[in-house]
Amino acid sequence: MADVTLKGVSKSFGDKRAVEGVDLHIKDGEFVVLLGPTGAGKTTTLRLIAGLEKPDAGTISIGGRPMEGLAPAGRDVAFVFQQYSLYPHLTVYENLAFPLRSPARRMDAAAVDARVRQVAKMVRIDHKLENRSTRLSGGEMQRVAIGRALVRRPAIYLMDEPLSSLDAKLRGELRLELKRIQKELGATLLYVTHDQIEAMTMADRIGILAEGRLVQIGTPREIYADPANLHVAARLGQPHINIVPVDLLPGATPPRGATAIGARTEHIAIAASEGGNARVDWIEHLGDQNHLHIRVGAHKLVTLADPDMPVNPGDRIDLTLKNPLYFGQDGQRLV
Amino acid sequence: MSAANSAHSVVEPGAASKRIAATLVILYAVITLVPLVWIFLTSIKSPPDSISYPPKILFTPSLEGYCNLFTTRTRQTPEYIAALPEPDGICDAVTRKRNMVIAGPSNFLPRFANSLIIAFGSTFLAVGLGTLAAYGFSRFKVPLADDLLFFILSTRMMPPIAVAIPIYLMYRQLGLSDTAIGMMLLYTAVNVSLAVWLLKGFIDEIPREYEEAAMIDGYSRLQAFRKVVLPQATTGIAATAIFCLIFAWNEYAFASLLTSGSAQTAPPFIPTIIGEGGQDWPAVAAGTTIFLVPILVFTILLRKQLLRGITFGAVRK
């Protein structure tokens, strides 16, 4: 395992800028998640580190070693592709053994066998080792793809939305499993996703990417509570953060220059009141909690509410802000 | 209807339409097979039977055609033949009945061997070069790739005979006329365009993530190509090889112009088999029958890949 450093890394495809001036340091044994929408440059960042793309500018080093001009095979990284990319002409066993049998490693057969069986057990695919890799369910393929990375002990594991094509239950299980394995191995891992729950639950640190730039990086708590701008604030939190004008609701103490308020559930106090400033439009019952859809003048807000709260659609309520987030004209956070 | 069935057909065809389809297929098969059957039957007729009119459907089979194909013969007086010891083998006996003796082996075997060497050699070269070129066009940013591909294809846009004279002159200058290597190069040049185009389609279908995964797993690009791309391209390679082989095997125009002696292939040789008093049709038919065998065997061996290859684009995804 090793640390990974990116300095001012940029990459364009034609006139489309995929990654722009990214500085990122991943510590040895750290689990970093890059979070961002499609096209934010997440996958390109992984491919640049793996050596599948050449950066237009900037440097990448792994374990202190500069990677410039080094082929993927020489970089000692493992990659889990979003589309599994299992070798279709090989069995599960052969897929898992493939990296170990590479000319770069040349492990002896007994060691390969032991390692493959150990990892197969770890990702719970040991009962299907002799299956053709094409004769597996999506979840099984994904576990083989992760296993194929885990058979090695590379400097860094790079994972590109490895859980995106699984159903919700399996995704939850594998999320825990992956975090457990990473801790156990003390592995350095860079993980790309657009799923905020994966980011929040697994990451030591989350990096938020937007339009090729690394907007903010910090612990999940920091990113959630202390977002640098509107974009970061909008990436985390369920329901979505409410963006309202500064003078819409009472309780705000906007600093100079604030033009918008970001209010999550915890920033909004609700009280039932006949003459309240808001009206309940609709209630979504989720079981353990309710989503309240609220209308204030022409603005719509969504917030969580206790299922026991005695409100019905059409009721008037009173909303007060408690320490919300303030944003300036340019979308940057103001404190 | 089972789920497996419904994946391929929306509605199972009815019994009547199945019968009509089967009838049409059989009819087509019969029509295309008639000439082949006729050639085979001619090959086991005696020379008089082969040219009798109306054509004979029922006849006494004879090996004379095959004997004449493999031998050259000289006419002798009946007295000379009567003085000879017992005939040695069937051909000897057949030949003596026509007042002739076997003088030696004919050129058929060396010509046939030329065909094998040139056709398989050029197929191997065309498919090998084609695979590498197709991989390059498929995976790398080749400057002017589209123009190059069009240029490669354009070599097939005219009939071979249109370039035969320049090639003949060129080959004479280079000393490649009537050499196996010259014919191999020529057929490779013609086939490589077909191979590049066919194989590029197949390789385009193989996601590049496979190679990328292999390269990250510790393989060089060439090793990844061999370990990951080639095994998945076998279908396309087999189909391409058959098309190339059929062309090189059957090619007549270049072969008859550029070869006459040591490098002559079977197609220009077979029609020149002349018996006494005209064309020796049973021998020609025998040569043609034997000529069909290698391509038949090769196609049967690869028929699974060929079928899958032809329907490849349609069923892959």
UniProtKB/TrEMBL annotation, chain A:
- Annotated coiled-coil segments of the chain: none
Keywords noted in UniProt: ATP-binding, Nucleotide-binding, Transport
| Gene Ontology MF term list | ATP binding
Q: Where in this chain does the record put each ABC transporter domain?
A: 4-236
An example Pfam family from this entry, by short name, is TOBE_2
What SUPFAM superfamilies has UniProt attached to this entry?
MOP-like (SSF50331), P-loop containing nucleoside triphosphate hydrolases (SSF52540)
Q: Which top-rank group of organisms is this from? A: Bacteria
InterPro entries per record: AAA+_ATPase, ABC_transporter-like_ATP-bd, ABC_transporter-like_CS, ABC_transpr_MalK-like, ABC_transpr_MalK/UgpC-like, Mo/tungstate-bd_C_term_dom, NA-bd_OB-fold, P-loop_NTPase
Answer yes or no on keyword Transport.
yes
Report the family membership.
Answer: Belongs to the ABC transporter superfamily.
Name it. ABC transporter ATP-binding protein
Source species = Ancylobacter koreensis
UniProtKB/TrEMBL annotation, chain B:
Major subcellular location class = membrane
Sequence ranges assigned to domain ABC transmembrane type-1 in this UniProt record: 112-302
Name the residues that span the membrane: 20-41, 116-136, 148-169, 181-199, 228-249, 281-302
Sorted keywords for this record are: Cell membrane, Membrane, Transmembrane, Transmembrane helix, Transport
Tell me yes or no: is Oxidoreductase among this UniProt entry's keywords.
no
Q: Where in the cell is it found?
A: Cell membrane
What Gene3D superfamilies does this protein's entry cite? MetI-like (1.10.3720.10)
Membrane topology label: Multi-pass membrane protein
Tell me which SUPFAM superfamilies the record gives: MetI-like
Name of the protein this chain belongs to: Carbohydrate ABC transporter permease
Q: Please report which protein family the annotation says this sequence is part of.
A: Belongs to the binding-protein-dependent transport system permease family.
What CDD domains does the annotation carry?
A: TM_PBP2
Q: Which InterPro entries match?
A: BP-dep_ABC_trans_perm, MetI-like, MetI-like_sf
UniProt xrefs under PROSITE patterns: ABC_TM1 (PS50928)
